[in-house]
């Protein structure tokens, strides 16, 4: 049974040549969401517990510490910890310990997260933001990836790929492939984390509209190319901006 489900998932993900957006009334998009729900169903056949998630996250974090220069005495660390504490109060999944790590990188605008509660942000990203609300929005987006189990499901997906193909000797390849071939599904996660992040900042008393500056700025040098658009794991900023504006107005009433 499990194998049949996984075969179905691979079939769906290999049809991933449609750009995922955020409009549920669009036929293509609703099909996509439906396929994504199936993928999640299959992935959830390989569940991990909160403690497994924390353990895997901590293990991956050790690798992150080796590959990146993570600051241990950063002057704004208490300020960042304060934002994380405020936001994590409103998460749906309790029992995850959120910690934010600052990467000393003055060149790259980046923030990301790992299963189990590890959040990362570069010094350039921190300096680039213009307000606490905006910084909180970026951090909240990363918290939402963890809270909505996007990060945990990546781990589950690897376990799934490995368990199904291990008997044939292709376990590792399947595990990496399963992560690579579903780029447009990653875009669905991005929209989901944008909405989750906007909800968190709003509950914590920040202005979710301030977070929109991020997409306006990022969108300034983006050019649309169909192929790139299909293969991207992140949707384009202009589309994220449109979706978020609609969400903030219609769902959050702000
Ligand atoms: Zn994201």
CA radius of gyration: 18 Å
> How far do the termini sit from each other?
46 Å
Shape assignment: globular
> Which strand order spans the largest sheet, edge to edge or round the barrel?
1-3-2
Helices and strands, in N-to-C order?
HHHHEEEHHHHHHHH
How many E strands?
Answer: 3
Question: What would the average pLDDT be, to the nearest integer?
Answer: 83
Low-confidence stretches: 14-19
Estimated helix fraction: 55-70%
Provide a count of the helices: 12
Give the count of structural domains. Answer: 1
Strand content: 5-15%
Q: Which cofactor or ligand species appear?
A: zinc ion
The secondary structure category is mainly alpha
Q: Characterize the largest beta sheet: strand count, sense, and whether it forms a barrel.
A: 3 strands, mixed
List keywords for this structure.
254 residues; 62% helix; binds zinc ion; mainly alpha; single chain; 12 helices
């Amino acid at each position: 049974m499990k194998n049949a489900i996984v075969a179905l998932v691979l079939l769906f993900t290999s049809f991933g040549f449609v750009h995922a957006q955020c409009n549920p009334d669009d036929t293509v998009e609703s099909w996509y969401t439906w396929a994504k729900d199936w993928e999640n169903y299959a992935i959830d056949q390989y569940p991990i517990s909160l403690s497994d998630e924390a353990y895997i996250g901590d293990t991956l974090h050790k690798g992150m510490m080796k590959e990146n220069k993570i600051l241990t005495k950063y002057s704004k660390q208490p300020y960042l910890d304060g934002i994380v504490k405020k936001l994590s109060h409103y998460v749906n999944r309790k029992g995850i310990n959120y910690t934010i790590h600052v990467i000393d990188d003055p060149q790259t605008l980046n923030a990301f997260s790992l299963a189990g509660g590890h959040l990362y942000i570069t010094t350039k990203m921190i300096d680039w933001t213009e307000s606490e609300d905006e910084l909180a929005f970026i951090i909240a987006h990363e918290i939402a990836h963890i809270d909505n189990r996007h990060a945990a499901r990546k781990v589950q997906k690897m376990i799934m790929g490995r368990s199904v193909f291990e008997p044939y000797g292709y376990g590792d390849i399947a595990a990496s492939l399963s992560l690579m071939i579903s780029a447009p599904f990653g875009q669905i996660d991005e929209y989901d984390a944008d909405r989750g992040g906007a909800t968190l900042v709003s509950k914590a008393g920040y202005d979710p509209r301030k977070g929109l500056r991020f997409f306006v700025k990022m969108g300034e040098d983006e050019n649309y190319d169909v192929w790139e658009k299909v293969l991207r794991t992140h949707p384009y900023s202009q589309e994220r901006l449109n979706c978020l504006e609609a969400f903030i107005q219609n769902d959050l009433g702000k």
